[in-house]
Write a structure and sequence with these properties.
The chain has 18 helices and 7 strands. It is α/β, with parallel strands linked by helices. It has one domain: Rossmann fold (3-Layer(aba) Sandwich), CATH 3.40.50. The strands form 2 sheets. Strands 2-5-1-6-7 form a 5-stranded parallel β-sheet, with helices on both faces. Strands 3-4 form a two-stranded antiparallel ribbon. The longest helix has 20 residues, at 312-331. The chain is globular, with a radius of gyration of 19 Å. The two termini are 36 Å apart.
Length: 338
């Protein structure tokens, strides 16, 4: 089964892209799977189906504090009734409700297939589950996974899924950073990136980033026990937010070395949706049916500009912090500025 990866910094329009992809007749749109599996998303290298399913199906206290109907009402999709929306299995938070209006039934179906498999590579468990879902939805030809912030794991994802076609989703750095600043999950990521480095723990390390490094299950467990509400309430500085966006962007571009991704700019998607959506569909599947374009082009809306609310000094501070990321994009010939 062919695959695709939507890689973005977070708060760059990727939720919109998932909605667009879900309406394509050939695409199995996998939304926020890797992000919600969290510390187990890319580890261990080999495991049996029982353990793999446990990572998808066991509620996480840490995840539940960050992703729930109150803190992320537009992104968090599960509403019950078989599980508590404030403490539900990771795969039920967003991934399955994005695919089906009956996510509980889909969860029970996967439980009977995914959990029965023997030991194999983690990436093969994911592929097998995508095949299960494809069959369930009439034989979709291409799976496409989209998780917020997945650009930081670009190198890992390319190694795990070399068959997947990468899409680099970009948004103006200061605008993306300001959106991160007000989003709970991004606030937590910025805090961990800044604070844990003093202990030698790098959220964005190429081989030990969140979801892959062995320390992350422990950190997640500690966060679940102690609580992260105070971190989520703390608004990071403009400098820290812009610097984090730059760090994610540079890490992601390093992980994309040697690749030829489709570069999709959120602003272009909103201003000229039909042509940009057609490019996306043809890149991922080789097709862009007219009825799909007719529907999908109605989804984008003209984005508001958060930077217009900043003072001149604040805008300069944010631009300076985003500078390394913007320069990296220009050097890689992937920026609309270059």
């Amino acid at each position: 089964m062919a695959g695709g990866l939507i890689l973005g910094s977070a708060r760059c329009g990727s939720t919109l892209v998932s909605r667009i992809l879900r309406s394509h007749p050939d695409i199995l749109s996998i939304s926020e799977l890797f992000s919600t599996v969290g510390p187990w998303a890319f580890r261990p290298d080999k495991l049996d189906g029982t353990r793999f399913w446990s990572h998808l199906a066991t509620p996480s206290r840490a995840l539940s504090q960050v992703g729930n109907p109150t803190l992320a009402p537009t992104e968090f999709l599960y509403g019950g009734p078989e599980h508590d929306p404030y403490f539900c299995p990771p795969i039920l938070a967003i991934t399955l409700p994005h695919l089906s209006n009956e996510p509980d039934a889909l969860f029970r179906y996967l439980e009977t297939t995914v959990g029965q498999r023997g030991e194999m590579g983690l990436e093969d468990h994911y592929r097998a589950m995508f095949a299960d879902l494809s069959e369930r939805f009439g034989g979709r030809r291409v799976w496409v996974e989209r998780s917020g912030g997945s650009l930081a794991a670009a190198g890992t994802l390319r190694a795990m899924f070399p068959e997947a076609r990468p899409v680099l989703l970009l948004r103006d750095g200061p605008e993306a950073a300001l959106s991160m600043r007000d989003y709970p999950a991004a606030r937590l990521a910025i805090w961990m990136w800044k604070k844990l480095r003093r202990f030698g723990i790098d959220l964005l390390h190429p081989r030990h980033h969140f979801g892959r490094g062995g320390i992350w299950p422990l950190i997640s467990a500690i966060g679940g026990r102690l609580g992260v509400s105070r971190i989520l309430e703390y608004r990071p500085s403009l400098h820290d937010t812009g610097a984090f966006w730059s760090a994610v962007t540079r890490t992601g571009l390093d992980g994309l070395r040697g690749a030829s991704p489709l570069v999709l700019h959120y602003e272009d998607l909103c201003l000229d949706p039909r042509s940009e959506i057609e490019r996306l569909g043809r890149f991922l599947t080789g097709s862009a049916p007219g009825n799909w374009l007719d529907l999908a082009q109605t989804f984008p809306r003209e984005p508001s500009r958060r930077t217009d609310t900043l003072t001149r000094r604040e805008h300069r501070e944010l631009l300076d912090a985003c500078g390394p990321g913007r320069q990296a994009l220009i050097a890689a010939a992937m920026s609309s500025d270059g």
